[in-house]
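Fold it.
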Amino acid sequence: MSEPKRPFNRWRFLRVSWFFFRVFAQAFFFDIVLNRDGLRWLRPDPYKRYQRIARRFRHLAVHLGGVLIKLGQFLSIRVDVLPTQITSELAGLQDKIPPAPFPGIVEIVEREMGGPLKTWFREFEQTPIGAASLAQVHRATLSDGRKVVVKVLRPGIHTLVETDLAATALACSWLEWYRPVARRVDLDWLVEEFDKVTRAELDFRAEAENLEQFRAFFKQDHRLYLPELFPDYSKDGILTMENVAWFKPNDIDAMQRSGIDLSKASLAFFELHMEQVFRQHMVHADPHPGNLFIRPLLTDEEKEKGMAPFAPGQPIPEADERDFQVVLVDFGMVGRIPRRLRNALREFAFAVASRDPHRMVQSYVQAGTLLPGADLTRIEELHEVLLDNIWGVANNRIQEAAGEAVNRVFADFRDIIFETPFQVQVDLLFTVRSIEIMNGMVTKMDPEFNPWLALLPFARQLATEDLGAKKVGRELLETVQALARIPRRTDRVLARAERGALVVRNALTPEVRDKLRRLERSMDSLRLTVLAAALLVGGVLLHIQDKDGYLDDALLGAALLSWIKTLFNR
């Protein structure tokens, strides 16, 4: 039996593909063809050009919707790899996405539930409380009076997703021709994973299963509150859950008035997310403020008065101090960390907490993040400089502290920066994305939040667990095996020495490398000066012999260009 034909919009596909083609063509011309000696002066300011491209993409994404918005949202938080000119232009996609017309929403709900809207819902608000790229959420009241929220797929979203995924796959196939990208990212795997995660967001039954898995894992952790699911009102295209719209993380003033300590709330968000990464290995991949809430709890005095728990939207009385719970919703996008990367992540956490650049680089090796032949010693030196400048610094001052080290980093580690010996582990893309979103959110709640100090007790706990009997036994076995290999390795080294084939590798210090670079630049300038002098002499001699010729002018012009080149080479 043949697979049913998937919906597809050919005109949309051509429009999106044409946009990507123009971007790649411009990048090839300006960043490759013109990025050569003698031609760079023809290049326009690259950052202004990137900003114009980002602005055009944002307009296209808002106009067309679908997967393009998710792609723009992902790029807008990659401040670690993209210039601010791009991320600032795309940041608007994080704010508010135009909602779908209400008649289309009603049609989907009635088709999924198999009857008129009023049969199932006493009330159903027309204006959504949240609109995302693939679905939107409406407040509603069940026929028995319970307050709920209903998540509904956007009309025609399956066609948009199929079309956009096809265009994205085509764009990635073009990127495979650019080796610096292709050798660092498994683009085929990336397309497959992005395709799988995006389609999973269209499957509300899978989202309900993800919610129940989170509920089972965190059932003993009273810091987290998860909404109740209503299976009888949930189908393939709609998902009905308890209304948990208490405080959003950006409701700073309201939370402070109610007595919620923002520093404690930030720490709770961070720790719960680290639990997902390092223990559950199943991570909520989209923890933006629209998917997170703070549930205010009753104070002891309010309990004594017999007050009922606060309902969403209910005014919260002022208090000096109030306990709370973190609330998590929207489990459509979930990242799962494969077993082969879990130990590497734990090693990275230990390394960061202990300021150990060697262990940090070894965690990259274990994860397969470094390209073959990468200079591990140089990468360790780079991480040591970065840790010395940013370890222990609060989030709101990390960028400033790192900026103070920029000159030294660029001077001493140009080879590492420009060669970029790292390859992206696609398995971790959604996990890394979620950590970046979470880190940005807690920084807005508490500008003094210190992720380093928050990670320390967590890393200590992980280390303590790893030092059990099994760990000790394994380390003892590895030590015995290493001792047993020493005689054989010694014989091998001596044999190579006798044959004259012994090679000793030595890493240069940053000071020596800096002197070598200055020496190389001086030699280049000397060669250009000699060439300019030779061209000048040749041009003068030809001019004396034949004043009406053109070759002497050419030689004199070449001499002038060579001399100018020496000025820029210093």
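The radius of gyration is 30 Å.
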